[in-house]
Predict the structure.
Amino acid sequence: MAEIDHRVIMRVSMGDEEAFAVLYEAYYAYLNTLAAYYVFDRNVANEIVNDIFVNLWKNRESLTYPINNYLVRAVRNASLNQIRNSRTRNEVHDRYRAVLDKYHEEHILNNPNPLQYVEMQELEQIIKSTVASLPEKCRMIVESYLFNGKSPADIADETGLNISTVRVQIKNGLDKMRLSLGNLMVLLLLINR
């Protein structure tokens, strides 16, 4: 670190840019190292020191000699403020990150990815065509049972059929679907339960 005398400080306070450059060159590396010691990040340290020099230039009229203690104290205070702000910012980010992670996880679990969506669409088409191939009375009962979630008793009430007739129609329809769908039938029953 070069020795800065009172004449350089006086010239800076009067707006001499060359004197400011001398001051900057004399202290920059030292102050940068000091800031890096506090904040453990070379880029943040550079920002801290540059901000100090910008503020020094803006308030140059009030500069006094010796300036060394002022600059060291300014770096220490700015570094501590950076650490406090970073800690607060990290706490806020951690809270929001936790909420965002929970939302993201729920979204992944509750929404199919595009491939799953296509597969579900294909499965739905296969199931609908299989159900459509059932005899009309059986088809209506199976649709009510599978797709509308109605119980055999509800279907019997709506259609005026005996509950045992409805159960037989459901069993017959599911058996025919099982022959057509094979392993996909298990998926259908899992999805609708």
Notes: The mean pLDDT is 81.
